[in-house]
Design goal:
single chain, about 230 residues, alpha/beta, TIM Barrel, eight-stranded parallel barrel, 9 strands, binds SN-glycerol-3-phosphate, binds magnesium ion
């Protein structure tokens, strides 16, 4: 069962910062997950649509200039990173799951990946996963570059969730932990989909999901799953 550090290692460092990414790697995560928006012509790594919860700034993320965002403290003196900085810190060490948060992220992220591959001949696209709750963005990614692995995110699982993921050509289906049953895991695997479950912080839940045969979990505490293994 893969250990995917949620927003880096959110239980140990300010979420979605380079410190958090480095912490997840240090703790032994196999993959990291970060959230990405397209703001002022830049791919910025951030979770909320507003600045207040995780920075000393104010207002809507997408209304700001990149210069203002970079002037903020995202926790412990960390800056809001760009996607390029996350790749510099993590590529070749762990897999990278980029969650497309806002509208209009598909195109710049695909462009970014193509540039990254162009600049890094050894770049391994199988260690990159693009996911989103916004399946329209995933559809766009598929149209722009059919080779990129996609993860279809669901909070709850509608009865046709597996069919929806298959229609997107997804590599994985990524449900919230409450929704996952053994029958669901069996059906997803039969459909050729990996099952990656969010957000799993309690060891008892990690054990339950491992028993169900899921392929990976997102956790704020990569160390807990590493110890369990
Ligand atoms: O991708 C898993 C998880 O990150 C989805 O929810 O809100 O934490 O981005 P959220
Ligand atoms: Mg996320």
């Amino acid at each position: 069962m893969l250990c995917i550090g949620h927003r880096g290692a959110r239980g140990h460092a300010p979420e979605n910062t380079l410190a958090s990414v480095r912490k997840a790697i240090e703790l032994g995560a196999d993959w990291i997950e970060v959230d990405v928006y397209w703001v002022d012509g830049e791919l910025v790594v951030f979770h909320d649509d507003r600045l207040e919860r995780t920075t000393n700034g104010q207002g809507l993320l997408r209304s700001q200039s990149f210069a203002y965002l970079r002037s903020l403290d995202a926790g412990d003196g960390e800056q809001i990173p760009t996607l390029a900085e996350v790749f510099e810190a993590a590529a070749g060490k762990v897999g990278i799951n980029v969650e497309l948060k806002g509208p209009g992220t598909a195109e710049p992220v695909v462009q970014f990946l193509q540039d990254w591959q162009g600049q890094n001949p050894g770049a391994d696209l199988s260690r990159v996963l693009l996911s989103s709750f916004c399946h329209d963005e995933l559809r766009l990614v598929q149209q722009l570059d059919a080779e990129v692995r996609l993860g279809a995110l669901f909070v709850d699982l509608p009865v046709d969730a597996i069919a929806q993921a298959q229609a997107l050509g997804a590599w994985s289906i990524n449900p919230g932990k409450e929704a996952v049953t053994e029958a669901f895991v069996v059906a997803a695997h039969a459909a050729g989909l990996k099952v990656l479950v969010f957000t799993v912080n309690e060891v008892v839940d990690m054990e339950r999901l491992r028993g169900l045969g899921v392929d990976g979990i997102f956790t704020d505490y990569p160390d807990r799953l590493v110890s369990l293994r």
